[in-house]
Amino acid sequence: MSLDGEYEPSTAQWVRDQVAEYESSGGQRANTLRESGLPVIIVTSRGNKSGKIRKTPLMRVEHDGQYLLVGSQGGAPKHPVWYYNLTADPQAVMIQDGPEPFDVTVRELPEGEERAQWWARAVEAFPPYAEYQNRTERRIPVFLATRRS
Ligand code: F42
Fold first, then answer.
1. Is a pLDDT exceeding 70 seen at residue 37?
2. Which residue of 29, 100, 115, 116 is surrounded by the most CB atoms within 10 Å?
3. 40 lines ligand 1 (CB under 6 A)
4. What is the model's pLDDT at position 4?
């Protein structure tokens, strides 16, 4: 793991519990969104203010080895704050999708064909994303994550 530093768990209990269970089981447990059966990944970023290590479960949207990270936060009016960690340092990001985390570089997708194609994949993987976007004026941000060798 190339992102070192002090881990600061989420302020949301269910989130930090999911991260702990996922990591301690090497991705064997707590790898879905509650009973939905829909798969989850763990995204590690560096706090853009605190410099601490932050870990965020997100729905797994994967295609040909790339991942889409969707800043939906249930359609809330504001971006989740991990958004600002990724924009501040797109290289200080890791994804765990199974036993071991790996380094990725993220790029926010602007409006256009590529975003539309990935958004369709996201809604296919997790249909509530479509509702969440209808629920808010905010354009839900999405990042394309590409593994660094
Ligand atoms: N959230 C999504 O947005 N999309 C998903 O697909 C998604 C899936 C999912 C699946 C399972 C699960 O358990 C949770 C899931 N969530 C999903 C929720 C997600 O894990 C986050 O909890 C949610 O998106 C909110 O992210 P957040 O980064 O806003 O978290 C808050 C609660 C938080 O931890 N705040 C911290 C705090 O102390 O208040 C600060 C965190 C932080 O990164 N601070 C930065 C720092 O420097 O340390 C500063 C950030 C800034 O600029 O303010």
1. yes
2. 115
3. yes
4. 87
